Amino acid sequence: MVDQEIIRAIDLFPTSDLTESTLMESRENSAKMLPQTDIAQQFPVTFEERAVPSYFGGPDIRIEIIKPREPKYNQMPLYYSIHGGGMVMGSPVGDRQGNAALAAQHGFCCVSVYYRLAPEHTQPSQLQDCYSGLKWCIEHAGELAIDTQKVAVAGSSAGAGLAAGLALYIRDQKEFDIHHLRLRSPMLDDRTSISPEHPYAGEFVWTKGSNYFGWKSVLGHEPGQEGTSEYYVPARAKSLAGLPPTYISIGSIDLFIDEALMFAKQLAFDGVLVELHVFPGYHHLAPMFPNAHFSLEGAKSSEYALLKALDLL
Q1: HEC profile for 7-74?
Q2: CB-based contact 118:217 (threshold 8 Å)
Q3: Residues 77, 103 contacting (CB under 8 angstroms)
Q4: Is residue 199 exposed (0-12), middle (13-18) or buried (19+ Cβ within 10 Å)?
Q5: How far is Cα 311 from Cα 313, in angstroms, rounded to an integer?
Q6: pLDDT in tens, the chain (313 residues)
Q7: 157 closest CA partner among 216, 199, 94
Q8: Angle between the 125-139 and 158-173 helix axes, to the nearest 10 degrees?
Q9: Coil, helix or strand for 243?
Q10: Spatial contact of 285 and 9, defined as CB atoms under 8 Å apart
């Protein structure tokens, strides 16, 4: 069932469940996989790292800021991205090239956040870090030359789950607004990790066992317990009304297929403009193959959705 254009990933990265004993090695291996190029040499952009304060009394938060060298706008749209890694690994380095391309081609100010990882830090650490990084950008809009009426929040995998939870928190805090939500292969529901095995999804790359480890690590308790905040587990939200236009993409054999479909259904039911793409035979590492047919289709459709939501077409 795996799309032949992306089947090589299964041999390159043999699937095994992530555990506490393998976490450090997995972090090191994933860091080695990330491109180490200087994006300011590769693209006509500037690159800056900043440490910004937490609004919750926590430690300062690192963010990366990528801007076009020759801005298209006096006030740039803001693209705020949250990296993946199952809540327990990863960094913004993996998003640098995509963010630099977005800045160069469409004039965005792209900001990525280094949120604290589990299991060393449990929720609400991740929510607080992601919110603080974005709120700092909004409060320093003049300094960054960004337009606070054109703000997109995006994430992949765990980053998409954090982005959705952040969007719910922003909706309820009412301090500022976001205008687009981009979710790729979103990790939205802790209950997937304790549900019966899916007959066709979740066999490759990110497995049910790894998902259980990720959710238990970030929640600090067994997945599936009642009373868990929707800001940590967005699939538990009673209503998604008030979220901005949302774009969701997912592979048909990705472990998160069911929760992505249910989230899209709930968005539509709650009156949120939602665009959903299910790519046949795509697993969780499909983005490793950007020139594969459905990767190209996804890049095209997600770019259009982003520009349309921010009135940049």
Answers
A1: CHHHHHCCCCCCCCCCHHHHHHHHHHHCCCCCHHHHCCEEEEEEEECCCCCCCCEEEEEEEECCCCCC
A2: yes
A3: no
A4: exposed
A5: 6
A6: 999 999 988 887 767 899 999 999 999 988 888 777 799 999 999 999 999 999 999 999 999 999 999 999 999 999 999 999 999 999 999 999 999 999 999 999 999 999 999 999 999 999 999 999 999 999 999 999 999 999 999 999 999 999 999 999 999 999 999 999 999 999 999 999 999 999 999 999 899 999 999 999 999 999 999 999 999 999 999 999 999 999 999 999 999 999 999 999 999 999 999 999 999 999 999 988 999 999 999 999 999 999 999 999 9
A7: 94
A8: 60
A9: coil
A10: yes
Q: What angle do CA 220, 221, 227 make, to 5 degrees?
A: 105
Please return the burial class of 226, using the count of CB atoms within 10 Å of its CB with bins 0-12, 13-18 and 19+.
exposed
Q: Report how far apart, in Å, the C-alpha atoms of 101 and of each of 105, 208, 250 are.
A: 6, 33, 22
Match 């990863």 to its residue by tokens. Answer: 90
Measured CA to CA, the distance from residue 19 to residue 209 in angstroms comes to 8
All domains of the chain in start order, with CATH: 4-309 (3.40.50.1820)
Beta strands of the chain (E only): which ranges?
Answer: 45-52, 61-68, 76-82, 109-114, 146-156, 180-184, 246-251, 274-279
Rg, C-alpha atoms of the chain: 18
- Structural contact between residues 148 and 74, judged by C-beta atoms closer than 8 angstroms: no
pTM above 0.70, yes or no: yes
Q: How far is CA 234 from CA 90, 165, 262, in A?
A: 21, 5, 11
Report the length, in residues, of the chain. Answer: 313
